[in-house]
Amino acid sequence: MDSYRVYFTGVGGQGTLLATSVLAEAAILAGYHAITSEIHGMAQRGGVVESTVMIGDVKSPIISDGEADILLGFEPVETYRAMRKCSAHSVVISNTVPIMPYGVAIGKAAYPNVNKLFDFIRSRVKKLFTVDAQTLAKQAGALLSANKVILGALAGSNVLPISRKAFEETIRTKTKKAFVEINLKAFDLGFSNTTGE
Amino acid sequence: MHPLLTEEAGKTLLLLGNEAIVRGALEAGVAFATTYPGTPSSEIGDNFFRIAGESGLYFEYSTNEKVALETAAGAAVSGVRAICSMKHVGLNVAADPLMTLAYVGVRAGMVIITADDPSMFSSQNEQDNRIYARLSGLPLLEPASAQEAKEMTEAAFEISEALELPVLLRTTTRLSHCRGAVTIGPLKHPKEKGVFEKESTRFVPVPAIARIRHKVLLAQAEKARGMACLSPFNAIIGTGKTGIAASGIVNNYVADALDDLGVQDRVRLLRLGFTHPFPEELAAEFIRSVDKILVVEELEPILENDLKVTAHTNGLSVPISGKGPELFSRLYEYDPGMVRKVIADFLELDYDPPKPIDVQEDPEPVELPFRPPNLCAGCPHRATYYAVNSVLAETGTEAVFPSDIGCYTLGLLPPLKAADFLICMGSSVSSAGGIARATDQPVIAFIGDSTFFHSGITGLINAVHNQHKFILVVLDNGTTAMTGHQPHPGIDIKPPGWDKPSVSIEAIASACGVERVAVVNPINQAKTKAAVREALESNELSVIIARAPCPLYERRMLGTKKTRGFVVGPECNTDCTECVDTFGCPALYRNPAPNAETTMIINDNLCIGCGVCIQICKKIRPKKIKEQGVQ
């Protein structure tokens, strides 16, 4: 059976860990084995949060350098920082909207040009998909649904053998009831508004 | 109902390793659980806490790991099944009871969870707690998956009861925080009350009894060795002539590597999960059947040495390797790629590892900004540190800052730079005494509220009695924030249904004999600075309790809404960046707009309205915020 190693990276507060378990549950619903791994430590304090989902017949819960099949980057600089997890075979899906690190916010460091980061990524990996998760999440009704936009982008990219229905069913059963409609809309917007070149 | 209390045996749940441990304990009929929170073990206690609210289970957040272990031992010697969980360094705190509890043993099953942290994702060291099993003589299990974590916890209770010894179950961060499918079994009805049956010739280890009990322990350990040899968690797999031995989480990396390399037929695996006492007979059989052995284990060469001893004892000369150059390191956690590479080399295979993308090869190299964790916007610890730094700056004094373990350790980072020395929980207070005695430098120590209860009090008594002179600042945010807002004995804002009495930090400090005890709200900078000034001038041992709730905790428990906002006035149009250079609230940042009206700007989404900034800079002022639309 095919297996897929999916690496998530983002900033504390972006909902990467919820997205991690939604993907794992959707994979199980689609009939696959799935395991995940999370590093929680500093999630609440604006640090980098990394997690993984392994789909298929993989026992190890972590991803070595060069071995991610898919990288889901919730923030452009973090997508670029995680490039070591990718190889020429990887598919990368990234949010385009920066979250300024504190050093940048106070003028002690510079935020690099996002297009240039993406140009390099595009030149090295199999495919790069980009999505403006913030705008679409706002359009869906809540900024906090940006993680569902990114999951929508993942589903829309067709790199995983998990149906749209399996994702939607998981969002319906595993996310907070009050937000299900917004989450489904965010997922849909991500699904249909992702640019891949 | 708590999802881990589901009765649907046979159902498969996607569980964290830590949740699987809790389920395993419930299936074993655990009735008593204790902990002191610490990453990566915290979710074990947090789940028991919620479950205790819905069942007859007794749970407590104990004041520290030694207390947690002794409390759980009290239940287990009274015939009630007990579990006690902690992070690896917590077992250092609990090591004293552990060593002698091994002598006297228990009556009902008792399982001790030690969650190790190779690579130190959230710890100050990466000690290998498998050594504690060797030091204490107790049985040790090491699960490789969430499913195995559930099964081993359940089995650990049986082993414990059969041997009348506590059993250690060791996880690592990757096991604790991995999520995997777990098929659950039926819940066992717990025995919630027992009887303490007196047996002073066993349970009171005065020297004459301890001598007998040590002998008993060694005899029980030999029985345990026999159990390990027959355990379903230990197995020889495959028929190849190259041996690979592994335990715990790395078993997965080995299994995946053999799959990826397609070499299962060349390899014979010694897959271990019940690793102490070392299953010598099984190991000898394994050694006899192969030409050479590679041992895969994170951190210390424990299995490697056990295998070497077994080989020597049995007169076998099979080469055994594990740690060494070109092999495995004693540092940090392993990963599947690294294990695959070493196995490929060991089997002399041509192996071409995947080529990671190197951003250094970017034709236009980018300097990536760092993203270190930071104290939150509105964190009262920042306000306290700022007040202390300001008072020291007024007088041009430099102080030494012994610090402690919690969110506030992040005060280490610039611009606050408020941590100079740290070794373990409680070390701020005691080391402050030593530094103050050995130098002429002023010493200001910082300790959190939960940490103060954990192990700050004995140091404070020591300081009073031995007349050490320093300032101890207790950063009291009313919760154990770092590990996920667990309650502690001093909390004001209580979780729903929490009817336990609170213990006053200022009353403890006074009762320890500290004459100068002040309580301040660090959000009030003038009063906080006055207290620091006064303490510094007195040159006496002083305790300042800086008390303001953790805003994240307060918001979660009380639903507190932001009531005021702040704005930077137009006169902020110079090069002055003092606010970020000295205070560093993440809500205050440099205005990036090209023709910005003000140099600095406040991020309304991050700002919680604490109002410390207006006390720091006159150019900042309050603004009205709308009732609606404030998040």
Strand content of chain A: 15-25%
Describe the biggest sheet of chain B? 7 strands, mixed
Assembly annotation: heterodimer
Elements of chain A, N to C (H/E)? EHEEEHEHHEHHHHE
Distance between the termini of chain A: 28 Å
N-to-C span of chain B: 30 Å
At a glance:
The complex is a heterodimer of chains A (197) and B (631). Chain A is an alpha/beta fold.
Describe this entry's structure for a reader.
The complex is a heterodimer of chains A (197) and B (631). Helices cover 40% and strands 19% of the residues of chain A. Chain A is an alpha/beta fold and 197 residues long. Chain A has a seven-stranded mixed sheet, with helices on both faces. In chain A, helix 5 crosses helix 6 (146-157), helix 5 (133-140) crosses helix 8 (180-192) and helix 7 runs antiparallel to helix 8 (180-192). The radius of gyration of chain A is 16 Å and the shape is globular. The mean pLDDT of chain A is 94. In chain B, the strands form six sheets. A seven-stranded mixed sheet of chain B has the order 3-2-4-5-7-6-12, sandwiched between helices. Chain B has a five-stranded mixed sheet with strand order 9-11-10-13-14, sandwiched between helices. In chain B, strands 15-16-18-17 form a four-stranded parallel sheet, with helices on both faces. The radius of gyration of chain B is 28 Å and the shape is globular. By secondary structure, chain B is an alpha/beta fold. Chains A and B meet through helix 1, strand 2, helix 2, helix 3 and helix 4 of A and strand 8, helix 11, helix 14 and strand 20 of B.
Features:
heterodimer; A: 197 residues; alpha/beta; seven-stranded mixed sheet; 8 helices; 7 strands; globular; B: 631 residues; five-stranded mixed sheet; 23 helices; 37% helix
SSE diagram, text form:
The complex is a heterodimer of chains A (197) and B (631).
Chain A: E1 4-11, H1 16-29, E2 34-38, E3 48-55, E4 70-73, H2 76-81, E5 91-95, H3 102-105, H4 114-124, E6 127-131, H5 133-140, H6 146-157, H7 164-174, H8 180-192, E7 195-196
Parallel strand pairs in A: 1-4, 4-5, 5-6
Antiparallel strand pairs in A: 1-3, 2-3, 6-7
Helix pairs in contact in A: 1-7, 5-6, 5-8, 6-8, 7-8
Chain B: E1 12-16, H1 17-27, E2 32-35, H2 42-52, E3 58-61, H3 65-77, E4 82-87, H4 88-93, H5 95-104, E5 110-116, H6 130-136, E6 140-141, H7 146-163, E7 167-172, H8 173-176, E8 178-183, H9 200-203, H10 207-230, E9 235-237, E10 242-247, H11 250-261, E11 267-272, E12 274-276, H12 280-288, E13 292-296, H13 302-313, E14 320-321, H14 336-346, H15 380-395, H16 427-438, E15 444-448, H17 449-455, H18 457-465, E16 471-476, H19 505-512, E17 516-520, H20 525-538, E18 542-547, H21 551-558, E19 565-568, H22 578-583, E20 588-590, E21 600-602, H23 613-616, E22 620-623
Parallel strand pairs in B: 2-3, 2-4, 4-5, 5-7, 6-7, 10-11, 10-13, 13-14, 15-16, 16-18, 17-18
Antiparallel strand pairs in B: 1-8, 6-12, 9-11, 19-22, 20-21
Helix pairs in contact in B: 1-2, 1-7, 3-5, 10-12, 11-14, 12-13, 15-20, 16-18
